[in-house]
Design a protein that fits this description.
- This is DUF177 domain-containing protein.
- InterPro entries: YceD.
- By secondary structure, the chain is an alpha+beta fold.
- It has two domains: about 10-140, no CATH class; about 140-170, no CATH class.
- The chain contains four helices and seven strands, in the order ββαβββββααα.
- The protein has helices spanning about 25-35, 120-130, 140-150, 160-170; strands at about 10, 20-25, 40-55, 55-70, 75-90, 110-115, 120.
- The protein has a five-stranded mixed β-sheet, covered by helices on one side.
- A hairpin with a 2-residue loop joins β3 and β4 (about 55-70).
- The protein starts with 8 loop residues before the first strand and ends with a helix.
- The mean pLDDT is about 85.
Length: about 170
């Protein structure tokens, strides 16, 4: 397995009350952009409050990222900001359920297993970013690209009746 692009190892015995702030550097952002098929990630900052609950550790906070991605319609790059609340639970791998024999509840979907006396908060943040990126995001020129290609919006009336009504309005 390759090394995570955004690794921030947290030792269980070093948990503190203050939130942990993770800011990706230029190389980490470039590697994450490649991993997620983005043109670029201009900034990535996460702030996570870690709360131990026995051997489990709950992480809750926020993620803010400025990403550059290709418009799903025009293919042109555009920049937009992602602001998301994030939450997950780190669970010791000896307590992680056998995925072949379990029915997952909504709260179980955000569990991340770890082994030993530490976990990788950076990779959890990276995975959270990957989950909130919209692969079908449309840039500011999407409508113009649709119009140039002759694609009619779902909102606009179309078909023979719509054309007949439009002709009546012009007269």
């Amino acid at each position: 397995m390759s090394e995570p692009e955004l690794s921030r190892i947290i030792k269980l015995n070093a948990l503190r009350e203050d939130p942990v702030r993770i800011e990706a550097n230029e190389a980490e952002r470039a590697a994450l952009a490649k991993r997620f098929g983005m043109s670029a990630i201009d900034s990535l900052v996460a702030t996570v409050q870690l709360t131990p609950r026995g051997p489990k550790v709950r992480g809750e906070g926020s993620l803010v990222a400025d990403i550059v991605q290709a418009c799903a319609i025009s293919g042109e790059d555009f920049t937009h900001r992602i602001e998301e609340d994030i939450a997950f639970v780190f669970v010791p791998d000896d307590q992680a359920p056998d995925l072949e024999e379990i029915e997952l509840e909504a709260d179980d979907l955000d569990e991340i297993d770890y082994s030993g006396d530490s976990f990788d908060l950076g990779e959890a943040v990276a995975q959270s970013l990957g989950l909130v990126i919209d692969p079908y995001a449309e840039g500011p020129d999407a409508d113009a690209a649709r119009q140039a290609a002759g694609i009619v919006s779902d909102d606009a009336p179309h078909g023979p009746l719509a054309e007949a009504l439009a002709a009546l309005k012009r007269d």
